[in-house]
Design brief:
Strand order of the largest sheet: 6-3-8-7-10
CATH class: Alpha Beta
CATH superfamily: Nucleoside Triphosphate Pyrophosphohydrolase
Radius of gyration: 17 Å
CATH architecture: Alpha-Beta Complex
Order of helices and strands: HEEHHEEEEHEEEHHHE
Shape: globular
Number of domains: 1
Largest sheet: 5 strands, mixed
């Protein structure tokens, strides 16, 4: 392997996890897909290793996804507030579901982004209790990828190539869900105008509203134009432009 393809070296500082939720600590053992800057898998590291700022600052990069789940008429987007128990970005408002494909056979499939879509379906059930039959794999629509880095605090952060997925189920107006308290503190269906208010509150000191950095980046760069396009076209499959699908946006 050339230097650009080598798995970034990682450190294993003695991070005390005893004050964190036991279930969230266990999830830190999952193996994420490590990437080069061109989104090529080059290895695997634990979720803990991938989210330590010491490793992030050394260049460790992993694959992620962000799901945007809409109402059937496209007028509302489902948001979640991350649980207080989360190790990274607790209590922050974000898009419907954000997580990582794992270094397992089904979630490593590159063709048609099937591995990412499989992971998204898995996590929608794990976090929000949304059944797979309500979010079929063929109804996830890939729009683009963003590459970003953001600290959560001095210890933890994100450095990801994030696959953006839209879904607009047609079989019912709003999908059924049973949010898992350990994962999700609150949920909210919002219109475009309501989302803009939430984002503004996230920038207002003392508002009590926190917004995840990747969600804010996606909203600032893409979301509202995509949302308009989806409503104009009447078809979520027509939202993505070819130049967006092919590009990794460095934000």
């Amino acid at each position: 392997m050339g230097q650009s393809d080598a798995v970034a070296p990682t450190l294993a500082p003695d991070v005390d996890l005893s004050n964190y939720d036991d279930e969230q600590v266990k999830l830190m053992e999952e193996m994420c897909i490590v990437l080069d800057r061109d989104d090529k898998p080059i290895g695997a590291k634990s979720k803990k290793e991938c989210h330590l700022m010491t490793n992030i600052m050394s260049g460790l990069l992993h694959r992620a996804f962000s799901v945007f789940l809409f109402s059937a008429d496209g007028s509302k987007l489902l948001l979640q507030q991350r649980a207080s128990e989360k190790i990274t970005f607790p209590d922050a408002w974000t898009n419907t579901c954000c997580s990582h494909p794992l270094n397992v056979k089904d979630e490593l499939v590159e063709k048609d982004n099937l591995g990412v879509r499989t992971a998204a379906q898995r996590k929608l059930f794990h976090e929000l209790g949304i059944e797979a039959q309500d979010v079929p794999l063929n109804q996830f629509h890939f729009l683009t990828r963003i590459h970003y880095m953001a600290p959560s605090d001095e210890t933890w952060g994100e450095h990801e190539i994030d696959y953006i997925l839209f879904m607009r189920p047609q079989h019912k107006e709003l999908v059924d869900m049973k949010p898992v308290a350990n994962e999700v503190r609150d949920v909210r269906w919002v219109t475009k105008d309501e989302l803009k208010v939430l984002l503004e509150q996230g920038l207002t000191p003392g508002s009590g509203i926190i917004v995840t950095p990747w969600f804010k980046l996606i909203c600032d760069k893409f979301l509202f134009s995509w949302w308009d396009r989806m409503l104009e076209e009447g078809d979520v499959a027509k939202v993505a432009r070819s130049e967006e699908v092919e590009k990794i946006f460095r934000l």
